[in-house]
C-alpha cells in the first residue's frame, strides 16, 4: 500500500507527532491553515468516510475524543475550534486515509476559510 499516512504510522516518513495511543496518531499539519492545525488519523487504514463500517464506530468516536482532548490541552477549547473531515475529490480529500483536521487559535468564518 502506498498510503502517505500509513507510512507515517510505520515511521517510514517523519512527522511532528503530538499524540499517540494504540488506535490513533495525531501530528502537526505541514501546511497549517491556523496557528494550531493537527491531523488526527486512525492507525487502521480506512480510505474515505464512505468506507466506515459499523465495527469502526468506536474508532471514529476516539478520533472525535482526541480532537476535543487536544483542543483542551492547547487552551482553545472554550474559545472554539474547527474540526473537518473531507471525503473524496470534490470534498477536498487529498490523502485517502480518513483524517480529521483540528484547527484552533484563530476566528473561523463560514463558509470555511
Automatic annotation (TrEMBL):
A motif (Histidine triad motif) lies at residues 97-101. The active site is at 99 (tele-amp-histidine intermediate). Transmembrane segments: none annotated. This is HIT-like protein. InterPro entries: Histidine_triad_CS, Histidine_triad_HIT, HIT-like, HIT-like_sf. Its EC number is 3.-.-.-. PROSITE patterns: HIT_1, HIT_2. PANTHER family: HISTIDINE TRIAD HIT PROTEIN (PTHR23089). One of its GO terms (molecular function) is hydrolase activity. Keywords: Hydrolase. Residues 4-113 form the HIT domain. It comes from Halomonas chromatireducens.
Amino acid at each position: 500500500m502506498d498510503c502517505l499516512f500509513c507510512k507515517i504510522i510505520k515511521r517510514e516518513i517523519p512527522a511532528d507527532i503530538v499524540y499517540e495511543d494504540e488506535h490513533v496518531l495525531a501530528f502537526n499539519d505541514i501546511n497549517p491553515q491556523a496557528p494550531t492545525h493537527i491531523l488526527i488519523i486512525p492507525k487502521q487504514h480506512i480510505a474515505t468516510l464512505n468506507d466506515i463500517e459499523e465495527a469502526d464506530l468506536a474508532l471514529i468516536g476516539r478520533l472525535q475524543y482526541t480532537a476535543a482532548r487536544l483542543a483542551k490541552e492547547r487552551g482553545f477549547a472554550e474559545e472554539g475550534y474547527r474540526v473537518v473531515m473531507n471525503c473524496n475529490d470534490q470534498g477536498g480529500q487529498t490523502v485517502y486515509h480518513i483524517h480529521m483536521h483540528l484547527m484552533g487559535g484563530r476566528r473561523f468564518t463560514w463558509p470555511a476559510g
